[in-house]
Sequence to fold (134 residues):
Amino acid sequence: MSNNAQNAQNPDAEDETPVAKSAEDRKAATALANLDARDESSAAASNVDQDAVSAAMKTLGGAASGAGLGAAAKGLPARTKNVKVDQADVTLLVEELDLPKAKALDLLKAHDGDAIEAMKAHIQSYSEAYLNKI
Fold:
């Protein structure tokens, strides 16, 4: 059935907002709706509530892979230069830390090819994440 046929049967259908099916979709829709809401007390209409923006980005980014987060938000220093990485170091991180090869390579590049520093940073990020859960 097309939208035109549905609108003919229900004339108020245009005014209704589609309901999100999952809880994550509802949270994202709420966060995006908060972005559209204007603060009446603010002088400039172009100001956007930063909390609403960050909440929307977190819900849209998803917790699966941290997509949309910068390297600093993931616990890695920003990459600014090309770094030659020894394949033996990549293999070491893959085998000892059970990392995918791409993640091990990124971790090594972020720490200037230093395998020890990369391993310390990886372990520290997991310990910080664990302590934050407690």
Observations:
- The chain is about 55% helix and 0% strand.
- Residues 1-68 form one domain.
